[in-house]
Amino acid sequence: MAVTMLAGCGGNGKGNSDSTEGNTLKFGCFSYSESLDPANMINAAWCNSRYGVGECLFKYKDDLSVENTICDEYSTEDNKTWVFHIRDGVKFSNGNDVTPSAIKACWDVLYANKTGSSNPSKFMDYESITADDEARTLTIVLKQAKADLRKDLAYPVFVILDVSGDYDLAENPIGTGPYALTSFDSKTKATLVKNKYYWNGEVPYDNVEIDFLSEDNKAMALQNGDVNLVENITSASDLETLKKNDNFNVSIGQGVRCGFAYVNEKGILKDDALRQALQMALDHKTMCEVTVGGLYTEGISVLPSSLAYGYDNLKNPYEFNTDKAKKLLDDAGYKDTDGDGIREMNGKNISLRYITYENRRLSDFAQAIQTQLKDLGIDVKIDSMNADKEWNLMVAGEYDLCDSNWITVGNGDPTEYLANWYGKSDANFCNYKNDKFDKLYEQLETEFDEAKRAKIIEQLQQILIDDAAVVVHGYYNSSMISDKTVTGADIHTADYYWLTTEIAPAK
After folding, report:
1. CA separation for the pair 1, 23 (Å, rounded)
2. Which has the least CB within 10 A, 6, 98, 147, 200?
3. pLDDT tens-place string over residues 290-308
């Protein structure tokens, strides 16, 4: 996916900002977005949810089913017209009532923004949205029926924020979550206070201070007492040190992120034998367990083994075997004729451009793959850059291998993620084409029966494996680490829920 993304819509003033005394949680995390406008980019939308500022009509549970939040009841007869009842008594953190009209107004702003990279219509493409404040209902008529629209509306891009009066889409979102933002500087710090209007129980902390830290500084900040809580320490040695220290609580769980490299079939890797040999030459087990110190769980498919999409039924025809990989290339006529250690194809050295970026240890995978393919007689040139530049090169098709780390079921379902390999999709930046895959994908888009959908998804995974279409590193194990002053800091399967009311002062 993937996966594979805030904020937005502030109301009048700064929301509930009158609490400066009382208990304080100090949270250290990476700054994933320069803006808090949910229309700006997906990372921004996620941060709204992660910081406890905004909520959606629904929320994902750890099994990726959904539960009611701002919506308490819903109905549909044909999966095209959906009626959502908005819970009574919910207020924004500035005290304004959350009405169906207020929700529609926020989404209107989101859909009207044509400059941001978030595209809500790819999740919910509608004919009409009607708000009835007296009945407290929001009626959505889709252009095409959906199996479960609730899963899309739980996605953080559909965060509910107050856009009445003067609002600041980038720095002052006013939501319904347990905490209200009082300041935001994406380079250094954000501060929040308890939302005194919060509808869903007691808010544990009066104040929250978020320090934006580099990946290398999280563990040190926690050990020095500068913060009480951090997310996703990516150094295996730091993580192991914290695990062994009784002063810290370490929560690790296999989430729904897949680390993988796109294979661009428009270039040299359109060759079947080369792709197949590449797959057999890579020791993913060692890379996951040693190279990145267990931060990933080895796997063969683009969807994590933890999801209920038939992973145990999948077969890998390209298991790690360097000798077989070399023989395959020999048989294809790709040999090193000039003794420089690199095989040739059509008289030219086989050289791959591998683009990657410094996040979630992807660059470590790139370096390991470079080393292993050198033994196969394939040259790999690594080009490491920031995520934005890599994205632009991926879209332009200027790569052979391109690292990524996606939330695979970002909206509770892998359909959108699997579009990365659908021949007719604008998201197919790897130029993959398989008619059987495309036909099954189109069936998936119109199939509502969950058991049948799961079987189609299993088949789609196997096709990608058989075609050696993706280099799958493994499945990222997310983490949340706290000191002993904090309780309830467990990592959730969905990567959207960090500062929740479950996290509280230890007694």
Report:
1. 38
2. 200
3. 999 888 999 999 999 988 8
